[in-house]
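Consortium newsletter contribution from the modelling node. Members have asked for a concrete example of what our holo predictions look like. Here is one, prepared for the LARABZUK complex that several groups have been discussing at recent meetings.
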Amino acid sequence: MKNEISVKICGLRSTRDVGVVAGTGAAYCGFVFFAKSPRNVSLELARNLALRAPVGLAKVALVVNADDGFLDALTQQVPLDMLQLHGSETPERVALIKARYGLPVMKAVGVADASDLPVLESYFKTADQILVDAKPPKDADLPGGNGLAFDWRLIAGRRWPIPWMLAGGLTPDNVAEAIKMTGAKQVDVSSGVESAPGVKDPALIEAFVSGATA
Ligand SMILES: O=C(O)c1ccccc1NCC(=O)[C@H](O)[C@H](O)COP(=O)(O)O
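And here is the predicted structure:
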């Protein structure tokens, strides 16, 4: 990486995806556990993919309002470096999950306007990181991964006390501008590096990482 930007590529579903992401020098890869998602993976597939990830590529499991039964199975079967909570988990639930599994937790918070920022701040004491994502439309099937951006001016120049990652509608073409406008040190993408829903495109992954780190 030429600069200090860390990149997360989310929604990997094949060993080819993992190899491509590892080859770009991205910092994180994400596996989605959400039945309605075109990126959903089974525990068995996720385990196989996670075992292919080289040292230095952090493996993140994305879950949505998961119960302890699922999280027990997930953490027992899949070697992970972080949990990403992408539902309506409260700060108290974040604290319980951190304590129970001993893994760093990144809480996703949807942003549509300035009234969403206090919600984000409510996780500073319990989450290890915040994923600052676009709020999904009210009728969306997915709580994330919709390829929609929010108005980056809402968070321009903000300083927060814990690490955070920018997400939502990022692409190879806009990621450099998003970083410049928000001051993000970490970026996350899924739809923007796909040729079809759930199908990652190696050339777009490479272009995204280049755009973020140039
Ligand atoms: O990707 C999904 O299908 C998904 C399903 C359920 C919850 C979250 C989901 N994705 C979140 C992400 O992949 C990212 O963390 C982020 O929201 C960026 O998505 P995108 O706008 O597609 O780049």
